[in-house]
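Risk mitigation, structural track. In case the binding assays with protoporphyrin IX containing FE fail to produce interpretable data, a predicted complex structure has been prepared as a fallback.
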Amino acid sequence: MSLSGIFLMVFIAVHLGLNLLLIFDDSGDLFNQGAHFMATNPLIKIMEPILGLGFVIHIIWSFFLEYENWKARPVKYAKKNMSGASTWASRNMLILGALVLVFLVIHIIDFFVKMKFTGHPLLEETVVGGVHMENAYALVSGAFINSTVLCILYIIGGILLGLHLSHGFWSSFQTLGLNNKFWIKRWQVIAQIYAWIVAVGFAVIPLYFMFGLYK
Ligand code: HEM
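Fallback model:
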């Protein structure tokens, strides 16, 4: 669970970095170059099914662990542990993860399926630095510009993911045994910083288009 989680957290950091190019270059050239690199680089192509597998393992394992916990204690504690060690996110990891999954399914249908399989009129070819490529920028920016509902969904998606990671990040390292007195506080602080960057970073992109800042 923790290894698949760490693998997914690395992907999320890379994905966020690439997506932020959407708001740092309004011509779309930088984002298109990044998306083209990701779509054509042989190493990334090998990583894609591994990433899919990472998600599947992470999701199936989370349900399995929840079932094992339930089997061990089918009747819940009468009083919840409200101590400092237990946060709202840590007590609701499964529901947060399930909501992120709902977001992810919508997201994959929205962009990935169009870019990889069905195509879309907005994706028509563009040329950047003499190289022909899909206009991924037109597809993504167009989707946000044309739908406030979609923007709100992505803002909520970013916040849910941030909350999920605020516990998941340090919990992964704790599971791997890096939970001695010296490290535990440090991992918790790093987890909060990472979670905030993810939540704010992903939410800023739809907000940028929603408020017309690209003009
Ligand atoms: C502002 C927010 C986001 C934007 C603009 C965005 C954009 C994109 C785009 C354009 C693709 C298709 C890439 C391709 O097929 O080459 C994609 C794929 C994907 N996104 Fe996102 N994304 C966002 C948030 C997220 C979040 C929060 C997650 C994780 C929960 C996520 C997970 C994925 C996954 C797993 C794929 C498929 C694998 C891949 O193509 O790299 N995305 N995203």
